[in-house]
């Protein structure tokens, strides 16, 4: 189990075995071969867990029986063994080989079960991204994808929700050579081939920040496990000029093409852990947290969210609507969920029950065929929220 690093050790209980009631402090054991030094966000995560434990102890209750001990542990890609990474990849390829659930007469671009999730992001785009839904709806969305990998494709792990994908220093500084992007068969695939990629215009930023420059890729991904993947839905947004438009104006027809990426060090450079750390520490309220995450033009800061998306870029990763069509999307939005989670857990008393824009109590999230409808406020809690369906922590 040498690679199951950062495993949780609960008092004398061996990691992986569900413990009884917590009597001793809940600690993370990261000493077992963890390949990278902890960054400042990892340290906040440890503090967040400790604070949350104290909060639970004070409340002396569990939500739907979910506890820190029995919660699923979403780990970083780097912390998974090669075999675990390969198991994850197999499950994604499996979803891409299963029949879809969406009505393919209505949505002929949906070729497989994976595409169901891409379609959800397209049809529910405004619902998923409006205030207050961005964080809670993506929390459900990632969870539903993780559930599909597990229940429909036999995956035994959890979604690797990686700061390592994006903001771990070594990855962010040199993404192309990181274990997630290096293009070997246990990575999530490499860069796209060199292409005439224009870079990405960033709205409301002043030069030179009005553009994320191209970083040498932008063409088809020809290495790693997704080299033969067919991207079908979209594009809907106008991102790349040389992608054939979708035959249907709504983007729901089949438009088969290769997966394209521009693994982008200019974007990833503003996702170093210190940016994420600053975001969490400098956001006393949830609205500021959301706003700053989405970019701060006056500080020339593209924001952790946009920079993460354009570290992947390309097609469909660069299209707002179709971006989940790149399997790396789930790592990036997993990271966003992790950062929200850390922000919440640092002060659970005051932060677990707030959402940007103070929606009414009966506000809901509806992801249609991807997940059951749920109350938006019930998604503030990863330990028992969503009517008890959520039960996970980040380690
Ligand atoms: C953490 O893991 C290391 C290596 O497996 C082990 O030697 C050490 O005892 C563990 N620490 C705790 C507190 O369990
Ligand atoms: C917590 O609740 C349980 C039963 O619900 C009770 O037995 C226990 O004494 C309580 N502990 C504290 C510290 O209040
Ligand atoms: C893939 O990359 C990882 C991380 O760099 C490395 O540990 C592994 O040995 C590589 N696998 C192959 C088949 O090259
Ligand atoms: C992709 O397709 C080519 C040609 O059929 C095949 O040689 C290759 O093994 C496939 N790669 C993967 C990862 O399935
Ligand atoms: C993060 O660190 C880099 C240097 O490593 C520095 O240029 C940048 O200003 C820092 N950003 C923040 C938000 O602290
Ligand atoms: C989530 O927010 C709602 C509404 O404010 C609140 O009733 C609930 O207790 C919160 N959940 C947690 C775990 O704080
Ligand atoms: C969910 O999908 C059904 C079937 O395609 C559609 O009729 C309905 O409008 C969708 N609901 C939402 C909220 O998008
Ligand atoms: Cu989204």
From TrEMBL:
Determine the domain of life of the protein's source. Answer: Eukaryota
Q: Which residues form the Tyrosinase copper-binding domain?
A: 326-337
Q: What is this protein called?
A: Di-copper centre-containing protein
Molecular-function annotations in GO: metal ion binding; oxidoreductase activity
Query: Could you say which residues form the signal peptide?
Result: 1-19
Q: Which InterPro entries match?
A: Di-copper_centre_dom_sf, Tyrosinase/Hemocyanin, Tyrosinase_Cu-bd
Q: SUPFAM superfamilies annotated for this entry?
A: Di-copper centre-containing domain
Which UniProt key words apply to this protein?
A: Metal-binding, Oxidoreductase, Signal
């Amino acid at each position: 189990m040498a690679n199951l690093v950062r495993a949780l050790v609960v008092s004398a209980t061996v990691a992986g075995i569900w413990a009884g009631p917590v009597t001793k402090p809940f600690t993370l054991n990261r000493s077992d071969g963890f390949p990278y030094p902890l960054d400042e966000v990892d340290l906040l995560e440890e503090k967040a867990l400790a604070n949350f434990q104290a909060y639970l102890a004070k409340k002396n209750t569990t939500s739907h029986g979910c506890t820190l001990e029995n919660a699923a542990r979403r780990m970083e890609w780097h912390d998974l063994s090669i075999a675990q990474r390969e198991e994850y990849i197999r499950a994604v390829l499996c979803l891409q080989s299963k029949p879809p659930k969406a009505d393919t007469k209505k949505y002929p671009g949906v070729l497989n079960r994976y595409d169901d999730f891409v379609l959800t992001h397209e049809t529910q785009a405004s619902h998923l991204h409006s205030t207050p839904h961005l964080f809670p709806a993506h929390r459900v969305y990632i969870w539903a994808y993780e559930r599909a990998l597990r229940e429909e494709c036999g995956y035994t792990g959890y979604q690797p929700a990686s700061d390592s994908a994006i903001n771990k220093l070594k990855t962010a500084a040199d993404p192309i050579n990181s274990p997630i992007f290096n293009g070997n068969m246990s990575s999530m695939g490499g860069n796209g081939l060199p292409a005439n990629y224009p870079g990405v215009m960033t709205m409301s930023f002043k030069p030179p920040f009005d553009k994320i420059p191209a970083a040498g890729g932008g063409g088809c991904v020809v290495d790693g496990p997704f080299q033969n993947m067919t991207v079908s839905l979209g594009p809907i947004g106008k991102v790349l000029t040389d992608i054939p438009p979708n035959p249907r104006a709504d983007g729901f027809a089949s438009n088969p093409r290769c997966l394209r990426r521009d693994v982008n060090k200019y974007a990833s450079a503003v996702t170093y852990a210190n940016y994420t750390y600053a975001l969490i520490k400098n956001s006393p309220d949830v609205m500021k947290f959301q706003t700053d995450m989405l970019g701060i033009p006056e500080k020339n800061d593209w924001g952790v969210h946009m920079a993460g998306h354009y570290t992947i870029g390309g097609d469909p990763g660069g299209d707002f609507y179709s971006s989940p069509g790149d399997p790396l999307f789930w790592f990036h939005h997993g990271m966003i969920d992790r950062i929200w989670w850390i922000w919440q857990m640092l002060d659970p008393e005051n932060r677990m029950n707030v959402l940007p824009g103070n929606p009414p109590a009966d506000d809901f999230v509806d992801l249609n065929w991807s997940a059951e409808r749920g109350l938006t406020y019930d998604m503030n809690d990863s330990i028992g929220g969503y009517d008890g369906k959520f039960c996970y922590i980040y380690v």
